[in-house]
Amino acid sequence: MHLGVLLQQNSGWYNNILATVLLFLQKHFQYLHSWF
CA-CA distance, 18 to 32, in Å (whole number)? Predict the structure, then answer.
């Protein structure tokens, strides 16, 4: 299912969790790239 549809069908707390996870993954991958 498309992310946009998921965001429209779910409530704000779900959007906040998703944004937090994406931000965490982004920083985590940047940290890994700094070692490789």
Answer: 21
Domain interval for residue 20: 3-35
Query: CB–CB of 19/30 below 8 Å?
Result: no
Q: What is the mean pLDDT of each run of 10 residues along the chain (36 residues)?
A: 65 84 89 71
Number of structural domains found in the chain: 1
Q: Return the amino acid letter for 30.
A: Q
Residue 18 CA to residue 21 CA, distance in Å, equals 5
